[in-house]
TrEMBL record:
Belongs to the peptidase U62 family. It comes from Caulobacter vibrioides (strain NA1000 / CB15N) (Caulobacter crescentus). Residues 127-219 form the Metalloprotease TldD/E central domain. One of its GO terms (biological process) is proteolysis. Residues 21-85 form the Metalloprotease TldD/E N-terminal domain. Keywords: Hydrolase, Protease. This is Zn-dependent protease family protein. Coiled coil: none annotated. It comes from the Bacteria.
Length: 443
């Protein structure tokens, strides 16, 4: 789509009676191939183009979207948006982002686009290699398949305040899922990786072997008695422990007063030395963006610095409610109001690798999978189902399952110790994390 059409849509909205307007265009293509037991299972191609429009009339606003971008459809989109805005309730905090916070080009080159577009045959070959290597691991008895995917996306924003920006990215991914054991003793394991450039992916065979290894490592688990003991969250899933923090420091949660961290800004909530960094401009980053979804410039910052909470995650609306400035964390789809999200988070590593954390802890649990988390957003009380392996004297004594760990996140964060085994696997990354004592519910 020609970005001039976005300017035309915004101009048409102003002409129809809107005081301000913003138009968004999102375009996506993807190709995915999956195999199972050596047979081609699915080839899926997706192409989508969508247009969104948000208009403001006084303190009223409305958002509409559609996939038909013909001139007739655009005219109806404008007409509908303006009519809806006239009927909407007043919202004193709804507006475009302040002009002095907007990003201005030229935007940094983040190297998010890979010119290489694999064929369906290439993706099938990658998926087959991943599955074959998973099935070849000793102890693997079945397969949930292998898959490989390519995608390309572009997102453009134009506002009546003069902002015009677009960013695009490609994605490549390979995954495999293996089954070990028989009957009621079957265990599953999986591995997958995603990157912006095809050349940055690990070898498909390595991904498959890790999926098989994960499945076999979970065979013959035992149940353990309920206890309180040190718990280590493996680096593959450790960011799941940090995820509730982001919701708790989101501007909308703070404005509503529904966050367990609502009184903690500027206070130490982690131990000294713990740092959670955000880098929106990481080259080839899965969470990189030169501006947020309201056109506000993104910037690197420490959300947690030496244990201290330094900022809320603010979009324009939440910032207005709190009497603060937007921090460039707006996140929105084509319809509906903005939420918030962060870009490329990294919990900085500590001194000990996973083995060192286990030796320091002595006896406890290493969590390797998590499911069904439960959080009371007002109090921070948190629990999650999990499985993993038990260790004694710093050495694994075998897999364990049907466990729930629980605690209060304010208490957990204060005692959390990062390991040194940081790997960049996604948009948010963490080393393994040790909590010196958590309630463990077992048999």
């Amino acid at each position: 789509m020609d970005d001039n059409l976005l300017h035309d849509v915004v101009a048409a909205a102003r002409k129809a009676g809107a005081d301000a307007a913003e138009a968004v265009f999102a375009e996506r293509q993807s190709l995915s191939v999956s195999v199972r037991l050596g047979e081609l299972e699915e080839v899926e191609r997706e192409e989508a183009r969508d247009l969104g429009l948000r208009v403001f009339i006084g303190q009223r606003s409305a958002t509409v979207s559609g996939s038909d971008i013909s001139s007739e459809a655009r005219a109806k989109l404008v007409e509908r948006a303006v009519a809806m805005a006239r009927l909407a309730p007043e919202d004193p905090y709804a507006s475009l982002a302040p002009q002095d916070r907007l990003a201005h080009g030229p935007f940094p080159d983040l190297d998010l686009i890979d010119a290489y577009e694999p064929s369906a045959q290439t993706l099938e070959t990658q998926a087959r290699i991943a599955e074959e290597h998973a099935r070849a691991v000793k102890g693997v008895t079945n397969s949930d398949g292998g898959s490989a995917t390519w995608s390309s996306s572009r997102w453009a924003l134009v506002t009546s305040d003069g902002f015009h920006g677009a960013h695009a990215a490609t994605g490549h991914s390979i995954s495999a899922s293996a089954i070990a054991g028989e009957g009621a003793g079957m265990e599953r394991g999986g591995e997958g990786r995603s990157t912006r450039h095809f050349g940055d992916l690990p070898a498909a065979g390595d991904i498959g072997m890790e999926a098989g290894r994960q499945a076999v490592a979970r065979l013959n688990p035992r149940k353990i008695a309920s206890t309180t003991a040190p718990v280590i969250f493996e680096n593959r899933l450790a960011m799941s422990l940090i995820g509730p923090l982001l919701g708790a420091i989101s501007g909308p949660s703070i404005a509503r007063g529904t966050s367990f961290l609502k009184d903690k800004l500027g206070q130490a909530i982690f131990a000294k030395g713990v740092n959670l960094l955000e880098d929106p401009h990481r080259v080839r980053g899965l969470g990189s963006a030169p501006f947020d979804d309201e056109g506000v410039a993104t910037q690197a910052r420490a959300l947690i610095e030496d244990g201290v909470l330094t900022t809320w995650l603010l979009n324009t609306s939440a910032a207005k409610q709190l009497g603060l400035a937007t921090t460039g964390h707006a996140s929105r789809g084509l319809a509906g109001p903005s939420g918030v999200s962060a870009h490329n988070l990294t919990l900085q590593p500590g001194a000990q690798d996973l083995k060192g954390l286990m030796q320091d802890a002595g006896t406890g649990l290493v969590v390797t999978s998590m499911f069904g988390p439960s959080l009371n957003g007002n109090t921070g009380d948190w629990s999650v189902g999990c499985s993993g392996y038990w260790f004694e004297n710093g050495e694994s004594t075998g897999p364990v399952t049907e466990i729930t760990v629980a605690g209060n996140l304010i208490d957990i964060y204060a005692r959390l110790v990062p390991g040194s085994d940081l790997e960049f696997r996604g948009a948010s990354n963490s080393p393994s994390l040790l909590v010196d004592a958590l309630a463990i519910a077992g048999k």
